Amino acid sequence: MIGVASCGVEVIASMTENVGIKGAKTRAWVTNWPDERSSALSLTFDDGYASHHEHLYPVLKECKLKATFFIVPGWLNDPSTSKHASRIGTWRGFEQVARDGFEIGSHGMTHVKLTRLVPGAENRAGTLLYELAESKRAIERHVPSRPCSAIAYPYSLHNRVVARIAARYYMAARGLGNPFTIATGAIIDWMDRRSEMAWRGNRPLSSFNRWFLTRRHEIIQKQQAFFQEHGVALKSALLERLASNIETRAFGRGVWSVFVQHEIIPFDEIKKVNTFSPYPIEWFKPFAKWLADQVKIRAVWVDTVSNVMKYLKERDTFNYRVLKEDKSRIELEIHHGLDTSMYDYPLTIDVLVPNTWKHVDITTEGKREHPEHQDTWIYEGNTYVRFNAIPKGQTLILDGS
């Protein structure tokens, strides 16, 4: 398991040498991110608030942005077990969110500090194994259509023991992250000259976690004061500063960034609640629309935590064999060597083909009724074709013309 850090994963194009025909000229690459987008981003929302399916979900759906909701099954089962009982969401609400393609991840069964628990057993409440296993089982009972494969550690607290045991159940785990990707409100606040929360230097992630967690109440107060000062609307100047910061620190670095947010509520409720770092939906809407525009111009790939992790793992284990090549046909076997029942996200693959090819029909061996038609493209004198495929050991037939 790879822990998800908002500073992202430094990436380079993945190419594995052909292990098939000796001396074959065909080469294959996987782009860093799908369709050669320059970076990746996951929007995550913690704790399972009602506002997530009442206010936030419609905005995300309208903007066609996928997100991961890290919920606390114990709170949804019995809201009275949370100190914010009246604000906790419902299983029915999150089941609808899941049906529309959003990810439901675990935030622990009861949102306790995992580092303080003994390993215990899966059926023993109050133990680490119970928090990790039972939360996953509860989510999968309500959302049987897809596995629960990501967790956000409660309070961001974890150690080697927690991470090692979590790896038995989850594909990806998220801690706190770096400041420029914590929340859109926090990003603006850190950019404000008067703020004392400015990021100074490149501190280790663990040091930032300790710093943030010890000062989070102060930070929340500053954030709420910032909202009240600037009013209900996210002004264009603030949005431009926010956009510039994200483009430079996240998109511009070509990495995977993870936004961490909590309750998203109407602006006039901000002062009435004491939940962790609430954020006004009126401010989130223009940010979401801006982000959707960035997706359209291919500046970023926005997807769930598990989908991004799948792409990373498949990309980095991608391999291929050239089974046949001549002037009109290439047969290429592609695979990633991972569990295909879990790792099933299509990779964007570039293949070097003969310079005479202008068009390519791509089919899977044994399934040639409906070929995929792609035009080739030229870069530095070489000709390539690009397509998307899940590398699960199948043979692809590329017919050129």
Give structural notes.
The structure is a single chain. Strands 2-3-15-19-18 form a five-stranded antiparallel sheet. Strands 4, 5, 6, 9 and 12 form a five-stranded parallel sheet that branches. Strands 13-14-20-16-17 form a five-stranded antiparallel sheet, with no helix packed on it. With 401 residues, it is α/β, with parallel strands linked by helices. The protein starts with a strand and ends with a strand. The protein has two domains: 1-30 and 318-401, Immunoglobulin-like (Sandwich); 38-309, TIM Barrel, CATH 3.20.20.370. Residues 1-13 and 178-206 have low confidence and may be disordered. The longest helix is centred in the middle third of the chain and has 26 residues, at 205-230. The chain has helices spanning 50-63, 73-77, 91-99, 128-142, 160-166, 184-191, 205-230, 236-249, 281-296, 305-317; strands at residues 2-4, 14-15, 28-30, 40-46, 67-71, 103-106, 150-152, 172-174, 256-261, 264-265, 279-280, 301-302, 319-325, 329-335, 347-353, 359-364, 367-375, 377-379, 382-389, 392-400.
Quick overview of this protein structure:
This protein is of the alpha/beta class.
Give keywords.
single chain, 401 residues, alpha/beta, 2 domains, five-stranded antiparallel beta sheet, five-stranded parallel beta sheet, 10 helices, globular
Question: Topology of this structure?
Answer:
Elements: E1 2-4, E2 14-15, E3 28-30, E4 40-46, H1 50-63, E5 67-71, H2 73-77, H3 91-99, E6 103-106, H4 128-142, E7 150-152, H5 160-166, E8 172-174, H6 184-191, H7 205-230, H8 236-249, E9 256-261, E10 264-265, E11 279-280, H9 281-296, E12 301-302, H10 305-317, E13 319-325, E14 329-335, E15 347-353, E16 359-364, E17 367-375, E18 377-379, E19 382-389, E20 392-400
Parallel strand pairs: 1-8, 4-5, 4-9, 4-12, 5-6, 7-8, 10-11
Antiparallel strand pairs: 2-3, 3-15, 13-14, 14-20, 15-19, 16-17, 16-20, 18-19
Helix pairs in contact: 1-3, 1-9, 6-8
